[in-house]
Specification:
The complex is a heterotrimer of chains A (about 280), B (about 300) and C (about 350).
Chain A lengths: L6 H32 L16 H9 L2 H32 L5 H13 L2 H14 L6 H26 L2 H9 L4 H30 L2 H6 L7 H10 L6 H23 L18
Chain B lengths: L2 H4 L6 H7 L4 H4 L2 H22 L9 H8 L1 H32 L5 H26 L5 H9 L12 H24 L4 H9 L4 H29 L3 H5 L10 H11 L3 H26 L13
Helix pairs in contact in B: 4-14, 6-9, 6-11, 7-9, 9-11, 10-11, 11-14, 13-14
Chain C lengths: L11 E10 L2 E11 L4 E5 L6 H9 L6 E6 L2 E2 L5 H4 L2 E3 L11 H12 L3 H14 L15 H13 L5 E5 L7 H18 L2 E6 L2 H7 L2 E6 L2 E6 L1 H6 L4 H6 L4 E11 L2 E6 L2 E7 L8 E6 L4 E4 L5 E10 L4 E7 L4 E6 L8 E6 L5 E4 L4
Parallel strand pairs in C: 3-8, 3-9, 6-7, 7-8, 13-20
Antiparallel strand pairs in C: 1-2, 1-4, 4-5, 9-10, 11-12, 11-14, 12-13, 14-20, 15-19, 16-17, 16-19, 17-18
Classes of the chains: A mainly alpha (about 280), B mainly alpha (about 300), C alpha+beta (about 350).
Chain lengths: ~280, ~300, ~350
């Protein structure tokens, strides 16, 4: 690129990097504070805690029933991701390969849940779920979380599929492949990386998804993030350190999956381009 | 000519549908479409109907109540007072940083770090900020040690805590979107401008900005949507009954604390509508910008 | 920082220009002098450094070492916007959000030229590239040839002392390429600027340039007028480019001035000798297929026909010599596969270099 060595340019460059560094520093600091506090015996009025202990983890584990909560979280998340994948991959394939009347309407339909605040459809949905008796149950939570996740999977997968040359499928047919054969031997292996990427990203997003679960969960169907919210909300009652221990456990669960996901995808895709990057 | 030859061969229904793009493959998108219709569109419609059948009063009673009670309609302004400045700041930060980062060779580390707040989510960031921005927290301590302030600033349980939280979760999103847009601009365009005598500032104003404008509008709209939906941080880190009494809190309280689902749905829908109006306004503005490809135009 | 833009066109001089990317050396020290008004072609295969050289001259890439001078003033420290050169990019790089007219006017706007005279000059430029009818269209609505003409107009309207062109014709179809080739030379002659033209196409270079600079692997192999390079290449790489497709190794038997007798593939050939080849030394021979003619008998190289194809005016083919070398040759009569022939090299058309390891 064009190199620019004037003083003004170098000053500007320095400012930009300073701001970026400040952001990252603050981000790490706030994470570090939570981690440190979770191990602190006492931390009042000083730069660092006065001592360290791991006991808050065991107390948080029993106090917040983290074992059960983690199980529920993973049941919900895997159910949501599996269902979204099942339903989403077909839709992504259809959208990538076919131009049909009403395609724009369908794309708009998939886009809508991602641009409307979760509370806007969450409150009526919660009301509806409670009316039909699914409110506060595992199934209600799963259904609620499907709403943003299915479109997300479709949106992430469609460009992957578009990149697969459709002539490969045509070539397979010319060589005599039946539809099943075509799927098994040609499509599935090519789709797998994209599917995996989409599902991992959806998994990471669903673990952190707060509002929908918050509105539809009951005491037995809370995910970890909701349990964390309640703990922080009522933080006058409980020790800050045990809340932070829970927060660290929550961080660990999301970050493990993030690390796994990053082996397959570019971090940029986690925000899922809501529109194609080329011209309209 | 035999009778058989005289009969015109009509393509089968299947073939005719396929010619219009409707075949078995297209049908693959049906399950997803049905799911979204059932889980998203239907509850919205249900909510609309529910909001028009209030607990007491005429069909518009909920909406009338909302717009006549300052505590309620004030939530729109409280939310805007948070969402608009934060989104503007996010974009003002994202553009210059993205323009710098696209020249970097090892961007992946930076983008990975920036994905962290999005991954961790609003609740965790709120909890972290409660510690970090507190009167005894590291942020205030550092500023006092440097000597920038004499006494700790009040940054939690007020507007600023929520602002900080929205900044931390919103900036990476705006940045990553902007980065993908600026990398889509052909570098040869800037090189051409330079050879024609354009200094860096002229290149930015006359080439980059016009080409980015349309994408920035989308980024602004999406970031704004995210900020407008603020909820857990407004409760945990703000003043849910005061300065940060945002519209999502009002909807939640109506539905789950006052057990008035009808009013709750009404407020939720007003929230959606308010945000939609602003997004539509942005898109209308966007239509006035250049929206074509920004790679070098080839015949 | 004085701008080089409004200086009267002086000679462009590259002195020891070197550009390295870490361990990879793109330019290995170029020395070149270009007189004002010359049309210079930088010719070479992909990766030879010709585009890098152009970018260094334009200021888009910094030099690792060396210097660039224009009319006695050093310019390699200047940013591209201060050098005032016009550049035509391979992808045209037309600003997609501006009409052709505004694209062309851009450089004038940057110079602060008042609107009226700018408009006049833009119309002049449009007339020169014959694009008046398309003036208000955006690039997206133009064909490749039209876009290319806008790119050229945009570069010349600022009256630069130097016009740089980076393979401007490579994205056009064959017919258009021939038309535009003539246009480019006509415009160069009309405005009288110096032009540096990068290409990998030998025909383009031969037909357009006053002098050709053949590059390979970041270094200059030969500089000279097209006829010189065509008839008397000084380096096997240059010979390569000029169509000397047939290769042989041999041994020098006698040397007399520019000529030599070389024994190769079992026959004696009279060739032009390069380098300090002495009798007894190994030589690398290069000859054009059209200068290696097939006869039924005689004392040429013994060979057997492997493949032959008809090309309109003559037959061209591939033969395998008794010594197992593969030789491309010409025949005026049709031949059969497997036929035994003798290949005669037209005297003084083949070129010998010291070899074969060069």
């Amino acid at each position: 690129m064009i190199r620019d060595d004037s003083l003004a340019s170098r000053l500007w460059r320095a400012i930009v990097w300073l701001v970026a560094a400040a952001f990252v520093a603050n981000l790490f600091a706030l994470i570090a504070v939570v981690v440190l506090n979770s191990f602190a015996t006492r931390w009042l009025g000083a730069w660092l805690p006065s001592g360290f202990t791991p006991r808050w983890y065991s107390s948080a584990w029993s106090e917040f029933q983290l074992g059960d909560v983690l199980i529920v979280t993973f049941e919900v998340v895997f159910a949501v991701v599996a269902l979204s994948g099942l339903v989403g991959v077909g839709a992504a394939y259809a959208l990538a390969r076919r131009d049909f009347p009403g395609k724009r309407a369908v794309m708009l339909l998939f886009l809508a849940p991602l641009v409307i605040p979760p509370l806007t459809y969450g409150v009526p949905m919660a009301s509806l779920l409670y009316r039909i008796g699914l409110g506060g149950t595992f199934y209600g939570v799963v259904l609620a979380n499907l709403v943003p996740t299915i479109p997300f999977v479709v949106l992430v997968m469609t460009p992957f599929i578009e990149q697969i040359d459709p002539r490969i499928e045509a070539a397979a047919r010319v060589f005599g492949a039946s539809t099943l054969s075509l799927f098994r031997r040609v499509l599935a292996p090519l789709l797998l990386p994209g599917l995996l990427a989409a599902l991992l990203l959806a998994l990471v997003r669903t673990i952190a998804m707060f509002e929908l679960t918050f509105l539809t969960a009951g005491p037995d169907s809370q995910t970890l993030v909701v349990a964390l919210y309640y703990a922080v909300f009522a933080s006058g009652v409980r020790a800050g350190q045990s809340i932070d221990a829970m927060a660290v456990i929550y961080m660990a669960t999301t970050l493990i999956w993030l690390v796994v996901a990053l082996r397959f995808v570019d971090p940029t895709q986690i925000v899922a381009r809501a529109r194609p990057s080329a011209a309209r | 000519m035999t009778a058989a030859e005289a009969r015109v061969e009509r393509p089968s229904l299947r073939a005719r549908l396929a010619a219009r793009g409707l075949d078995a493959t297209t049908a693959l998108c049906l399950p997803a479409v049905i799911a979204v219709l059932a889980l998203f569109v239907y509850p919205l419609v249900y909510g609309l109907v529910e909001s028009l059948t209030p607990k007491a009063g005429r069909w518009y009673a909920n909406y009338a109540a909302f717009f006549s009670d300052p505590y309620l309609y004030g939530t729109i302004f409280a939310t805007l007072r948070l969402a608009l400045p934060v989104t503007i700041v996010n974009l003002l930060l994202a553009v210059p940083i993205a323009l710098r980062v696209r020249l970097m060779r090892r961007q992946r580390l930076l983008t990975t770090i920036l994905v962290l707040p999005v991954t961790l989510g609003t609740v965790l960031v709120a909890e972290g900020l409660l510690n970090y921005l507190g009167p005894q927290g590291w942020f205030n301590r550092s500023l006092m040690t440097i000597g920038l302030i004499a006494a700790p600033m009040k940054l939690t349980n007020n507007y600023w805590g929520v602002f900080a939280s929205l900044l931390i979760t919103g900036f990476p999103f705006a940045f990553l979107l902007t980065l993908s847009q600026v990398t889509g601009i052909d570098p040869a365009l800037e090189q051409a401008a330079a050879t024609l005598g354009a200094k860096p500032s002229a290149r930015f104003v006359r080439i980059l900005l016009p080409l980015l404008a349309s994408g920035l509008a989308i980024t602004f709209a999406l970031s704004f949507v995210q900020a407008f939906a603020v909820f857990p941080s407004a409760v945990l880190l703000g003043q849910p009954a005061g300065a940060t009494h945002v519209i999502s809190i009002a909807a939640y309280q109506a539905a789950f604390e006052q057990y008035d689902y009808s009013l709750g749905s009404a407020i939720a829908l007003i929230m959606g509508a308010a945000q939609l109006i602003i997004v539509v306004a942005i898109l209308v503005l966007r239509a006035r910008f250049y929206r074509g490809p920004a790679g070098a135009a080839k015949g | 920082m004085t701008s080089a833009r409004n200086s009267t066109a002086g000679a462009l001089r590259l002195a020891g220009v070197r550009r390295a990317f870490g361990a990879y050396i793109a330019l290995a020290g170029l020395d070149l002098e270009i007189a004002p008004g010359e049309f210079i072609a930088l010719l070479g295969p992909s990766g030879c450094g010709k585009t890098t050289a152009l970018n260094c001259i334009a200021g888009l890439t910094p030099l690792t070492s060396g210097s660039i001078w224009l009319g006695g003033r050093r310019i390699d420290q200047l940013p591209p916007e201060a050098r005032g050169f016009g550049m035509v990019f391979q992808s045209y790089a037309l600003f997609p959000h501006m009409s052709a007219r505004r694209n062309i006017a851009f450089g004038l706007a940057m110079q602060g030229i008042p609107k009226e005279s700018a408009e006049e000059r833009v119309n002049e430029a449009l007339a020169m590239v014959r694009l008046e009818a398309q003036a208000d269209k955006p690039p997206g609505q133009m064909s490749g040839g039209q876009q290319q003409r806008v790119a050229i107009a945009r570069a010349i309207v600022i009256r630069p002392p130097l016009v740089l062109m980076d393979e401007p014709l490579s994205n056009l179809d064959a017919k258009l390429r021939l038309e535009m080739r003539a246009e480019i030379r006509r415009i160069h002659d009309a405005i009288g600027s110096t032009t540096i033209y990068v290409t990998h196409d030998q025909d383009e270079a031969l037909s357009l340039a006053d002098r050709i600079v053949v590059m390979r692997e970041g270094a200059i192999r030969q500089v000279g007028a097209p006829a010189d390079l065509y008839e008397r290449p000084e380096h096997p790489d240059v010979a390569d480019f000029m169509g000397f497709r047939t290769r042989m190794t041999g041994r020098v038997v006698a040397r007399d001035g520019e000529r030599a007798i070389v024994e190769a593939c079992g026959a004696r050939l009279q060739v032009l000798a390069r380098d300090a080849l002495q009798p007894g030394e190994k030589a690398l021979l290069a000859v054009r297929p059209e200068d290696l003619v097939a006869m039924r008998d005689g004392d040429g190289i013994e060979a057997e026909v492997e493949a032959i194809e008809y090309r309109g005016r003559a037959y061209f083919g591939l033969a395998r010599a008794k010594t197992a070398d593969e030789l491309y040759f010409r025949s005026d009569a049709p031949l059969g596969r497997g036929q035994a022939i003798r290949l005669n090299a037209t005297p003084d058309r083949a070129v010998a270099f010291s070899g074969p390891s060069r």
